[in-house]
Amino acid sequence: MDTQGIAILGSTGSIGCNTMSVVESFGAGRFRVVALAAGRNAERLAAQVERHRPELVAVENEECAERLREELNRRGVPAPRLAVGEPGMVEVATHGAARTVVSATVGAVGFVPTLRALEAGKRVALANKETLVIAGELMTRAALESGAELLPVDSEHNALHQCLRGERREEVRRLILTASGGPFREKSLGAMHGATVEEAMRHPTWNMGAKITIDSATLMNKGLEVIEARWLFGFGADNIDVVVHPESVVHSMIELVDGSVIAQLGVTDMRHAIQYALTYPERHESASLPPLDLTKLGSLRFEAPDFERFPCLALAYRALRAGGTLPAALNAANEEAVKSFLGGRIRLTDIARVIERVMDAHETRAVSSLDVVLDVDRQSRAAAAAEIARLHEGTKAVA
């Protein structure tokens, strides 16, 4: 079997590091890491370069590049070709030796590089849900025109992909995404209003980055996944449901027209989904991946989501039903609001307020080009920043 070249966008994050773990579990010959893109973690990136010797590495800016050179020099490792910024990420995403691109950046930063990878006909293992939220129409069109494969790495969508294998589209009634419920599943709205960053970061089942963890606390992460599922699998909002499943053992389900339900179960380890995407359509054993012990599961609970306490989920459904550029506006406003909550400028419950006000003021357009999407992203971030400033001033006045 030919060695498969791998490029990773966001190599030092959780998904990127887990991808490295999966690659290493196969030993030499199956995969080769040819290009990496990362942000500011020079020490972790240098360790990855030392171990995998990629041909190309992209970092955030020249300062990060210089820190990486110094760290590699300290380790006695020759520096690969370095690139910076978004152009560097695009170089990584379109590297000639990469057959598969793992898109694992957080937020809108991965949008353009992922689009370019699809245009170049790469297999894209997608862990960056924001790219489909922002412009699913552009992404899926690019994949269709180039023949690129788009495989989900998010555990929920990866589970749906597995459940749908072999099923006829017309025999599937609905997709069912599961949500852990996050740290506030049993908390009152009042408790959520006064929640600290530390409390919001205590995810009950998954260990993730800050932005995704806060999205899980507000259920916006599930809302973004509903939009992502529409573009990955072609189902409308009325045929995509969310259920809260605190144990996070059932990663997602499909319901067939005869009432049968097919579920995908597994332990909470992202390496399962990553390996599935890298080796699809084959399946392989891996000594490093833990199996699910059914005898230790105990009970499995399923609950309806509370749209009153978690309005972000309702806002995502609203954006999906409206279509056009409204999901891009929602995503941009959410990113800015989450950043401000993490920085202590607004409350957790203010995140939904910021998003709703940006959406209310947004004039929805057709997703006709990359320029339109990027313009909406900029405008929505500016609108969110203005709303955040207003809320911040109000909070200071009360204090």
CATH topology of the largest domain, anyone?
A: Rossmann fold
Domain count: the total is 3
Structural class: alpha/beta
Q: What are the segments in which pLDDT stays under 50 over at least 5 consecutive residues? A: none
Strand content: 5-15%
Roughly what is the average pLDDT, rounded to an integer?
93
| Architecture (CATH level 2) name of the largest domain | 3-Layer(aba) Sandwich
The number of strands is 11
What is the alpha-carbon Rg in Å? Answer: 21 Å
The CATH first-level class of the largest domain comes to Alpha Beta
Distance between the termini: 65 Å
> CATH homologous superfamily of the largest domain?
NAD(P)-binding Rossmann-like Domain
Spatial arrangement of strands, main beta sheet: 4-3-2-1-5-6-7
Largest sheet: 7 strands, parallel
Helix content: 40-55%
Shape: globular
Note the run of SSEs as H and E.
EHEHEHEHEHEHEHEHHHHEEEHHHHH
